[in-house]
UniProtKB/TrEMBL annotation:
Record's keyword annotation contains Transport: no
Any Pfam family the entry gives: CbbQ_C
Chain ranges of the ATPase dynein-related AAA domain: 35-169
Protein name: CbbQ/NirQ/NorQ/GpvN family protein
Family, as annotated: Belongs to the CbbQ/NirQ/NorQ/GpvN family.
Listed InterPro entries: ATPase_dyneun-rel_AAA, CbbQ/NirQ/NorQ/GpvN, CbbQ_C, P-loop_NTPase
Amino acid sequence: MNAHAETREGADAPFYLPQRDEVAVFEAAARNDLPVLLKGPTGCGKTRFVTHMAARLGRPLYTVACHDDLSASDLIGRYLLKGGETVWVDGPLTRAVREGAICYLDEVVEARKDVTVVLHPLTDDRRILPIDRTGEELEAAPGFMLVASYNPGYQNILKTLKPSTRQRFVAMEFDFPPPEQERAIVVQESGIDERRAALLVRLAGKLRALKGQDLEEGVSTRLVVYAATLVAGGMDLNRAISVAMIEPLTDDADIKRGLADLVVAVLG
Ligand SMILES: Nc1ncnc2c1ncn2[C@@H]1O[C@H](COP(=O)(O)OP(=O)(O)OP(=O)(O)O)[C@@H](O)[C@H]1O
């Protein structure tokens, strides 16, 4: 089970550079007990945003990376054998409901269908979590908030949320930051100089223009930060671009050659 909890109360909020009014929208949703859905490509800042907001609001955060094996019990909890006794162990969603925390379901479309059913009574004004196994019906503690994200891109054409699920969330669309902001993020995250950050960001823009033709998904801000981190640590610029911004995008030798040509054109 791929879940971890972090209690961030009192902790400094991690760096997040806002793109639009997402901070205000999230705060308004939090004030009014509304669940939030973040849509956008991989590595564009959704998780960082949620971590930042949890710290800002002083609420603990439970993050669950959803996958196609994730079941309702992984979220809610299960009976486990401990020292010869059977004990109930809360899952991350139940813990968040009890503690008034934020529960963040990353890539929620990957989760099995029985998971979305669990979310329904939690995401309307009932705010309850029925736990069939224990017979409990938990009322969400003040502060509980459900946040989910998904990537509506190419590979998810067949995987999407049912209207009855998606129409329970306030939703915001995220995308890669505009060049100037992405440069600031890359500098901040990696410690690289402005000039080379600008170069990497310009290259990322060119690579993103190939999305849909040659590439399934444009290069993420995460990968640009990786490349910059390697360069800041002393790696040759071309090598860092190759391992962090080209190889992760495709396995196709022809496409890779095309991308390498693009790099030469951008770097001059
Ligand atoms: N607005 C931003 N402010 C600060 N850092 C950002 C921002 N956008 C992107 N980043 C950087 O990009 C990295 C990847 O972002 P993040 O992990 O939030 O992606 P994501 O959208 O949640 O991706 P996934 O859907 O794959 O989980 C972050 O670790 C951070 O370095």
